[in-house]
Amino acid sequence: MLQNHSKDRVSNKYEVRLRRRNAMWIHNGKKECPHAELTSGLCSNAYFNLSEVCSFPFENHWLASSLCANLRGQGLKTVDFVVGSAYAAITFSYEVANCLGSRHVFAEKGSDGEMLWNRFQLPKNATVLQIEELVTTFKTTEAVRRVIIEKNKHPVKFLPLIGTIVHRPQKLPIKYFFDNEPITIVPLIEKEVWAVPQEECPLCRLGSKRVKPKNNWADLIEC
Ligand SMILES: [Zn+2]
Predict the structure, then answer these.
(1) Domain-wise residue ranges, the chain
(2) What architecture does CATH give domain 51-190?
């Protein structure tokens, strides 16, 4: 269940880049090193902190151009709008829109974490591609789609593809549906990452401390 990333053979060039920018952490199996306590309260042995890489405009641009090429490889032609979600994905989805020659829009987050669609109105039947920087569960992606359907004055045409830098579900392969329509995730990196309740966590059992990753990022990365 645990992987020692120092012994991992890293074959994915995007993963290499994320590691170099400290945007990705996997527990090394040592009990003196802390592990991640997710927002959900679950424990995990891996975490992606993509702001660490996307805050470099040239890295963000390179990742977006690579995803753009993958999307074209999946048959994507032109889209009217690329939509991103608040907030980490905004600069990345902007770069993807730039690459595709599309307009860029984004959903926002309210004070209770709810998804808002106040800033933009999309024209009738516009083709829309959703871009995220990270897909863990389908929750955020679904919330963005749902709020546009509910709040945009006109109906739009969502493409059945979602592009992302990282897709890290708990189990692979996984199938996603939105209103019974199958959705294909197009990632640059796809990895199974476990997340379990504290009482089932092998790292807690080992004696590793659990910490909130974003506030303790240096402790995770440097251990
Ligand atoms: Zn734990």
Answers:
(1) 1-45+194-223, 51-190
(2) 3-Layer(aba) Sandwich (3.40)
Query: Residues 6 or more apart from 104 whose CB is under 8 A from it?
Result: 81, 82, 83, 84, 93, 94, 97, 98
**121 alpha carbon to ligand 1 midpoint, in Å?**
44
Q: Say how many Å lie between the CA of residue 218 and the centre of ligand 1.
A: 18
CA of 114 to the centre of ligand 1 (A): 28
With a CB cutoff of 8 Å and minimum separation 6, the contacts of 21 are 52, 53, 56, 59
CA of 29 to the centre of ligand 1 (A): 12
The reported pTM is: 0.91
How many whole angstroms from 195 Cα to the centroid of ligand 1? 9
202 C-alpha to center of ligand 1: Å?
A: 7
Concatenated DSSP letters of 79-124: -SEEEE-TTTTHHHHHHHHHHHT-EEEE-EE-TTS-EE--S--PPT
Tell how far the Cα of 111 is from the centroid of ligand 1, in angstroms.
29
The rounded percent of the chain whose pLDDT value lies above 70 is: 95
- pLDDT of residue 5 exceeding 80, the answer is no
Cα 215 to averaged position of ligand 1 atoms, centre (Å): 17
Tens-digit pLDDT profile for residues 70-112? 999 999 998 999 999 999 999 999 999 999 999 999 999 999 9
Residues in the chain: 223
